[in-house]
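We include the pair:
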Amino acid sequence: MLLLAPAAHAVNQLVEQRWALMDRCTEAAVATNPENTPQSYAKRDAAMRDCQRHNNVPVRDRLVPQRPQEPAPRTAEEPSRQ
């Protein structure tokens, strides 16, 4: 039991360092593209992902909201739901 505590602490520190790097990448991307436009969001995503790949940390999900999938148009054979 006593041998596991130092190993767990070392793993915890490594995880915290990776999260800090990921946060710095996000902050740098937002600082370089501060506008709230779709183009700026896309540039932020690209900059954030490049920074994360460069620092060998897990790449976070996109900042740009994805458009919801639109339902397929109904065909004449489908009954309407009312």
Notes: The helical segments are 4-32, 38-54. Residues 16 and 64 are 25 Å apart (CA to CA).
